Amino acid sequence: MDCATKEAAVSWKASQGVLSYAVSALSEQQDTAACVSTGPGCTLSNLRCGRTYRVQVLALDNICSSLPSRAAMLTTEPCQPNITAAVLDCYTDSALLDWTHSEGAVSYATTARAANGDAVTCTTNSTNCELAPLECGQTYTVTTVASNPVCDSDASASVQLDSVPCAPTAVVTEQDCAANTALVSWQPGAGADSYLVQAFGVEEHEVSCESGAAARSCLLPGLQCGFTYNITVLAVNSECNVSESAVTVLHAAPCVPSVVLAYLDCQTDAVSVAWEASKGAVSYTTVAQGNGGYSVLCNSSGSTCQFASLPCGLSYNVTVAALGVACSSAESAVAQIDTGNSRAAPQPGREALRRLTGQRVFFVLTH
């Protein structure tokens, strides 16, 4: 059997007194083929794929024909398979292939080839197999060939298979603390059609943004003050959205301090300031700005601060800002206090004043 031409050469020992020979081939499916020769050999053509033929030779002269020779069995090449499905598994970087049964096939070999030269093959005696592992970001051309002990079939018609996109890398965030936004940028992953940036807060707040394949950044809006976010970038194509970058941690700006109370101790001329703790704050900066241009700065790790010996006779506007890991909050609402008239100053309750004791306090005086 010549697998390339799909023809079979038949030969025999010559007989005495013969003018010609007639060769016939008959399959179990009643397919026939024949050839005639004056010598001890001829070629059978138009053979059907996936058949086993019984081949016999008759010797002829002008008057009679001989009895048929003993039959020889001829097996042709398997029929061409047809791929019916190629399903990508996004989580395992593999693909499951199905194809039609080929008459005459004993086994099958399926090959996927990418433009970068990567090739993946699976062999089986059934009509499906798994191709693994596939490289990310590649488009594979997939074909299946059926085989038997005599020949390989023609390759099936090819199908195109896109693997999972490669995960983005080098994720960087640039935070706008005042606007509560963050610009997220990355190095793209091969094979991505678009990108999805997700920010998950540790307290279940979530924000996201999307961009096209050509973009390398997008803006996350609406970050909540005091939240810590885990940021990932997903590369997405028509098949998969599981190619995820490494996690980048982002600390949003701390919340603005609230309920700021200022109290003057008339005996010591010290002003104590207290406020509600701010979510996300690491430390605080308290500023007392006098109406004569005099200002005092107090840094504290807790939610109280004390100014010692403020110059008397001035009215002060007191504000507090929270400092976080990456940002500072806006200033709090102003609390006013007059060192010339302590009774006019806002008075915190007893419980608020008790919180003022036992705090670590630092002072910086500026003019």
TrEMBL record:
Q: Which CDD domains match?
A: FN3
Q: What InterPro entries does its record include?
A: FN3_dom (IPR003961), FN3_sf (IPR036116), Ig-like_fold (IPR013783)
Q: Which Gene3D superfamilies match?
A: Immunoglobulins
Give start and end of each Fibronectin type-III domain: 164-255
| PANTHER family with a match to the protein in the record | FIBRONECTIN TYPE III DOMAIN-CONTAINING PROTEIN 7, FIBRONECTIN TYPE-III DOMAIN-CONTAINING PROTEIN
Q: State the protein's name.
A: Fibronectin type III domain-containing protein 7
Q: Which organism is it from?
A: Merluccius polli (Benguela hake)
What lineage does UniProt assign to this protein's organism?
Eukaryota, Metazoa, Chordata, Craniata, Vertebrata
